[in-house]
Amino acid sequence: MRATQKLHEIGQSLWLDNITRGLLTSGTLRRYIQEFSVTGLTSNPTIFDHAIKNSHDYDDAIQQKLKAGKSGETLFFELAIEDLRQAADLFRPIHDLTNGVDGWVSLEVSPLLAHDTSATLAAAKALHARAERPNLFIKIPGTKEGLPAIEEAIFAGVPINVTLLFSSAQYIAAAEAYLRGIERRIIAGLNPAVGSVASLFVSRWDVAVMEKTSAELHNQLGIAIAGQVYKSYRSLLDSPRWQRILNAGARSQRLLWASTGTKDPKASDTLYIRALAAPFTVNTMPETTLKALADHGDIGGTLPADAHVSDEVLARFTKAGIDFDVLGAQLLDEGAKSFGKSWKDLMECIASKSKTLKAA
Q1: CA 121 – CA 141 distance, rounded (Å)
Q2: What pLDDT digit, counting tens, does each position of 208-220 carry?
Q3: 139 labelled catalytic
Q4: Measured CA angle at 220 (ends 218, 223), to 5 deg
Q5: What per-residue confidence (pLDDT) applies to 1?
Q6: CA-atom Rg of the chain in angstroms
Q7: Catalytic residue among 6, 65, 125, 139
Q8: Is 283 helix (H, G, I), strand (E, B) or coil?
Q9: Whether the predicted pLDDT of 198 surpasses 90
């Protein structure tokens, strides 16, 4: 049995952190679903930037949209929604079979809105309405300004993938925003079954401390932080507050492991996948990691819910002078800025490609 299937057997959803038109038209994504137990997909501006820049798969569609007077952000979202509709349709049987637990795809609002609550909420509602697919998440970052937008979007019935979370405190804040939105729907007599995932970015912790710690601590911090967050997740699921919304017909917001591609060339290429095997979670991984997992990956035990091992590891990092609160806030801020830069790169890519195609 492949390691990808083993993850499925223990109750973890395996999602692909990639989308290109070529993946769709070549049948590759369909094959990943059938052979590698892939049950969902995430996207981001960097993924689309590379897909458009490094292929001709979008040229015809871009030319048609240019003729229709489309450009920039408007043109991009039309391309992205076309791709994600196709992907959503491939995952729709899984979505229906699991009663909405699995089979999701994700589309991000403009990262330039990360610190604008009202604009983020308006964009989330508009994009979800345009996509016209029940199994499409809108990604909103877990920034201070993003949290009220998440609550309002959930209350409005828009499924949300909360992105750019790095710490237990940030995760809990995102989960509580989701809870408030659901509780308000229950009070208003609305259907509380609105899907959501909370995405914790793992490997960026290890990149951030690589030059600040000794070799024996390398590639351990991200997993330890994830263990701490998993403990918070399990505690929330067992809390009376969460049980009340489940009793009213809501579904649980699932914890998602993001940024799970190994960045250290000296470490295992499936490091974070093996360490973060846990039931009722999602692991979204780059295509190279997915292939490595299917080819030679190995899944041992599951992530413990008590975080005892994580606490011991974190104590060693504290002794080494790492302040998790400060670094977690820094990673969130840097992540938002990085996503903003990726968005600007994507818009430049669209403009450059449009100019080239017009000249041709």
Answers
A1: 11
A2: 999 999 999 999 9
A3: yes
A4: 150
A5: 82
A6: 20
A7: 139
A8: strand
A9: yes
**How distant is the alpha carbon of residue 19 from its chain centre?**
13
| Alpha-carbon span 205 to 23, nearest angstrom | 30
Residues 6+ apart with CB under 8 A from 186: 192, 245, 248, 250
- C-alpha to C-alpha distance for 252 and 246, rounded to whole angstroms: 7
Contact 185, 191 (CB under 8 A): yes
Going by C-alpha positions, the residue among 181, 199, 203 that lies closest to residue 190 is 181
> What six digits make up the tokens of 108?
């991000």
| 283 DSSP β-pair partners | 14, 257
Nearest of 201, 280, 197, 194 to residue 234 by alpha carbon: 280
Does the pLDDT of residue 59 top 90, yes or no?
Answer: yes
Residue 159 amino acid letter? P
137 and 195 Cβ atoms separated by less than 8 Å = yes
Record the tokens describing residue 84, joined without a space: 């994600």
Non-local CB neighbours of 239 within 8 Å, separated by 6+ positions:
none
pLDDT at 181 over 80: yes
10 Å Cβ neighbour count for 145? 17
> If we measure between CA atoms, which residue out of 202, 140, 138 comes closest to residue 167?
202
